[in-house]
Amino acid sequence: MATSSLLPASYVAAQSPGAAAARLAGGILGTLARGKSFDAAAWARLLELLWGDLTEDPLRQLCWSFSEAWPDYRPMHALNACRLALFLALAQGRSEPQAEALALAALLYDVGMWHPRLACVLHGGPLTEQERDALSRHSALGQEMLAAVAGLDPLAARLAREHHERPDGSGYPDSTPRNSHHEASSLVQLVDSFLGQVEPRPFRKARTPADAMGRLLLQSQRGHYDAAALRSLLMGVGLYPLGSVVRLSGGETALVRGVNPDDLKRPPLLLLTDAEGSPRERPLSIALADYPAQSVIDVQ
Predict the structure, then answer these.
(1) Residue stretches of the chain with pLDDT short of 70
(2) What's the pLDDT score for residue 2?
(3) Chain-centre distance of CA 147, in angstroms?
(4) What whole-number distance in Å separates Cα of residue 133 and Cα of residue 130?
(5) Residue 233: how many CA atoms within 13 Å on its side-chain side?
(6) Which three-class secondary structure state does DSSP give residue 203?
(7) In terms of residue numbers, what domain contains 222?
(8) Does residue 114 share a domain with residue 165?
(9) What is the pLDDT of residue 12?
(10) Domain CATH code at residue 293
């Protein structure tokens, strides 16, 4: 049985490129790229939509179930970065203005990919060396585009330039070390890398959220990511990230609905099936920590 068929319909619908939030995100980025103007009214509508869901039922926005690759991945990528950054800001206890500033910067940081010179980003196959070289300039292009928008928080332009930098100085475009990066850039570097793995692309399949998190942990040990930022991500979404579908030792399929800070391997869950694999009429909310005989044995 397909995993998406077990999920609440509202969770699946929120991951569609045709959903209201995705259309708003794409419109904001497209308008900015074409005219160097920022649609503040559309941003206010998007923020209201995300804020309501993330404070009432985060899974409505953070269930990483994508049925297929999108012809143009950019609107959904921008939306995913925005809503994940907003959720993490709330989890960290940031003030409302701070959370909104981070969410906006996360929505816009990859705007360089919308530059007319980078149409190759929509190709469905391998890029040429010339195209890869052009894409490597998108961070600097994004900074230039955002810096030209009057009244926009300068944080957005800084994150656009720094989101592919790395603490060990191995990133681009400037190969700068950790102590020169904005604190928010260190978090968005991880958000970008996480989403780049869990989102499908025309030329490759998506990884599971847990696989993506495992790779980030390994790469962090090698100096590719800031340890404090990684801890913020890990404590915000978990080792089996919020929205992951897992299988339990008892046979049930479940959706990760939260984080257990005392034991990241035993998160709060929504049971989607019974032990025989039959779908439940209504998902059952449990804390895996209350069931010591049960454990996660697979992530789908």
Answers:
(1) 1-2, 67, 124, 178
(2) 63
(3) 24
(4) 5
(5) 32
(6) coil
(7) 3-243
(8) yes
(9) 87
(10) 2.30.30
Cβ proximity of 77 and 29 under 8 Å: no
What's the token pair of residue 169? Answer: 């100085």
* Same domain as 297, residue 154: no
Which residues have C-beta within 8 Å of that of residue 54, sequence separation ≥ 6? 61, 62, 83, 86, 87, 90
pLDDT the model gives residue 133: 83
| Same domain, yes or no: 223 and 92 | yes
Domain count, the chain: 2
Contacts 24+ apart (CB under 8 A), 127-136: 136/172, 136/173
**What are the backbone dihedrals phi and psi of residue 127, each rounded to the nearest 5 degrees, phi first?**
-95, 155
Write the CB contacts of 32 (distance below 8 Å, at least 6 apart in sequence). 38, 39, 108, 111, 114, 145, 146, 149
Beta bridge partners of 296: 248
Handedness of CA 201, 17, 269, 8 (dihedral sign): negative
Q: Domain of 156: which CATH number?
A: 1.10.3210.10
Structure tokens at 209: 């959220």
127 and 15 housed in the same domain: yes
